[in-house]
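Thread: quick sanity check before group meeting

JM: Hey all, I'm pulling together slides for Thursday and realized we never actually wrote out the predicted structure for the chain we discussed last week. Dropping the sequence here so it's in one place. If anyone has concerns about the input, flag it before I start.
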Amino acid sequence: MRTRTLLVLSGLVLGAAACAGVETGAPPSTPPMVPVAPPAPIENYDWLSYIEGDQASLAFGLDESDDVWLALECRRGTGRLAMVAPAALDEPPFIRLEAGGEAVAYAAESEPSELHEGVFLVANASAADPVFRRFREAEWMTIEHADGRHAMVPHPGSAARIERFFAFCG
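JM (edit): ok, ran it. Output follows.
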């Protein structure tokens, strides 16, 4: 009886395995991406932009202060970005950004800071990098430091600055 039970179970397992390898009908579809709602903007912090001649900058911070979390700069039509972010002295030399599911860690150089007890991380990137394409779509991104991730969200009415900056950069 035991041998017969093992044969029947083996047949069921083998039959199930054989059926599992056969495709019938349309392949399963990938579930649609569910957009992630942005966190609330931070009081007094926003995306600020400046365009003068052939130079432009986009920075997230406190207006008219040195309190900036991330600054992006470019020359008109080059498609190249220079990035600057403050960091702690012992923080690894990377600028870590995430937008709309795209995450990247840009290798950076550390430069001494006279504005805070730390350093400035400086890196270069392409305006066409996936993280920046997703940033343009989502209109917000995060920056990661040793103490965690921080959302950089525009206030109502200021999100247009993001697209204007990237259109200028090319």
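AS: nice. The longest strand covers residues 45-52. The helical segments are 2-20, 130-138, 160-169.
JM: adding both to the slides.
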